[in-house]
Specification:
about 170 residues; alpha+beta; SH3 type barrels; six-stranded antiparallel beta sheet; 6 strands; elongated
Length: about 170
């Protein structure tokens, strides 16, 4: 009579049960590593794309200065230009010129000259936030403004009189 073997001590059964677990763990680890690599590549491509898009203006936007943004509809906005890309430009800390004319008849001829003042975006009836995204197709051009210019001086005066509006 042959000696009886137990299934638990049989070498092939021990290898096969631990081997399957090892194979499943190896597959799972490989899938996790591949997913981590793919996620890292996607995140890197996204960050590089954002960096290139924000610097695509060749460093022409002087971020510490104000810019004048001239639009195709004749409007001009003053603020800090950023995120210049093929689709949109972003403008923050926005001001614009407001023209006030007398509409009452019989006023003296000196009142025919319009009174131009600087207005801060955000005080309008609809209460917009102080950020504007403008389609590139609507932008004629933009300029960096000197700190010694009248518009920037008026903005600085406004900000001194209204702290916390930046």
């Amino acid at each position: 009579m042959e000696p009886r073997r137990s299934n638990s001590t049989h070498p092939s059964s021990a290898v096969s049960s631990s081997g399957r677990g090892g194979i499943n763990n190896n597959i799972l680890n490989t899938v996790l590593v591949v997913m981590l690599v793919i996620t890292s590549v996607i995140a890197s491509v996204y960050l590089i794309t954002r960096l290139v898009a924000s610097t695509s203006n060749g460093g022409a936007v002087k971020s510490k200065q104000f810019q004048a943004l001239f639009l195709t509809n004749g409007q001009v906005y003053f603020g800090h230009l950023s995120d210049v890309n093929d689709g949109y430009v972003k403008l923050t800390d926005i001001y614009y010129l407001q023209v006030q004319q007398q509409v009452q008849p019989g006023q003296s001829s000196s009142s025919s000259n319009p009174n131009v003042s600087l207005a801060k975006l955000g005080n309008e009836l609809h209460g917009p936030e102080d950020v504007m995204y403008v389609a590139q197709s609507q932008v004629l051009f933009w300029e960096n403004l000197k700190n010694s210019g009248k518009v920037v001086q008026a903005i600085n005066t406004y900000q001194q009189q209204h702290p916390g509006t930046q």
